[in-house]
Amino acid sequence: MSESTPSNVNRIPTGQLFGTSPLNEVVPQGYFPEISPRLQAVLQEIVTDVVAKLGCVGAMVTTLEQGNALPVRAYSLRFSVDLLERLERQAGVTLIGPSAVVYLDHPRYRNNISARSVTGQNGRVEKFLITEKLSDLFSPVVPATFADMVQKMTGIRHIIALPFFIEGQVVGNLLVATRDHFSQRDIDFLTAFGQQAANAIQSQRRLDQMQALERTVLDLQSHLTDETLMLQTLVKAIVQKLNYFGAAVGTLEADEKFPLRAYFFDLAPDALAKLEAQGGIYFAGPQTTNDLRDPRFQTNLTYHAIQAARHNAENRFLLSGSLYDFFRPLVNKDICDRLQRS
């Protein structure tokens, strides 16, 4: 798979409004914020490498955003910008760029290969989809006859769409067009590039989350003098900004007591109250106070974490796969297991 003409790299100006197609169909409008320069650079490098190393006609990366939209974040082409601009003027729409957005919930996009690769069929997302029709990529933005004309001009034979994932969830896809066939080696190569894009997105998300939490903590320190309110705001921010199920803060007192001072769960209050009623005890809150001197409590995860830190200051955390380790011995194991499964 090789082409003789040099590739032409194009960068996407992000953060723009998206409107209607030339078919006068009404499509959703959305504003997609700019991604970080670091993530933009990684995605751009990916599509540039795909075109250069595989000799493809073009490649682009989309990311799945709020509103189930797939805006193009980076692309690279192996033909001139002049040709692209001429085709776009003729079509009256941006073919590859910030306006080339696929809306998964809009019925007119259901046949688009980018949409199909992300949504899958019957709840199953395939590793990749391949089509011989460029119209499958541009549907419904331009008529099939126009897409067929562009395909003949560029000599494109196949288009592949490869979704990429973070922890089993689709977060975008890599779309590549070629004048040749995609071999298994090519597909493996592109899959690796897709995973690289997913890893970059995950790293950026974690950084964004930590920075958001850091801003929350700094704001608390600046404006709050009520310690209890500050702790409650902190655990709520941890759950909501970092997408955790729950968080709690306890303080170690001079008498070796360990009361929970604040907590927040991503769970309806009535659901939590029902579980507490079944267990006959409060899971969290001021009523939940543990005594480190109590032998029963010495099986608790908190006890082990405190003792580990006392013996070695570098022991900053302990992990457990069982919710019961956090609540023992105050809550029945069956209730904890049921809560964890739910």
Average per-residue pLDDT, rounded, comes to: 81
Fourth-tier CATH superfamily name of the largest domain:
GAF domain
Shape: elongated
Main sheet overview? 6 strands, antiparallel
SS strand fraction: 15-25%
Biggest sheet, spatial arrangement of strands: 1-4-2-8-7-6
Task: Explain the overall architecture.
β7 (158-166) and β8 form a beta hairpin. This protein starts with 7 loop residues before the first strand and ends with a helix. The chain has 342 residues and is an alpha+beta fold. The chain has helices spanning 37-54, 81-91, 113-119, 135-138, 144-154, 184-223, 227-242, 269-279, 301-311, 324-327, 333-341; strands at residues 8-10, 58-63, 69-70, 72-77, 102-103, 129-131, 158-166, 169-178, 246-250, 257-265, 289-291. The longest helix is centred in the middle third of the chain and has 40 residues, at 184-223. It folds into two domains: 8-207, Beta-Lactamase, CATH 3.30.450; 224-341, no CATH class. The strands form three sheets. It has a six-stranded antiparallel β-sheet, with helices on both faces. A three-stranded antiparallel β-sheet has the order 9-10-11. Strands 3-5 form a two-stranded antiparallel sheet. The chain is built from eleven helices and eleven strands.
Ordered list of secondary-structure elements with their pairings:
Blueprint: E1 8-10, H1 37-54, E2 58-63, E3 69-70, E4 72-77, H2 81-91, E5 102-103, H3 113-119, E6 129-131, H4 135-138, H5 144-154, E7 158-166, E8 169-178, H6 184-223, H7 227-242, E9 246-250, E10 257-265, H8 269-279, E11 289-291, H9 301-311, H10 324-327, H11 333-341
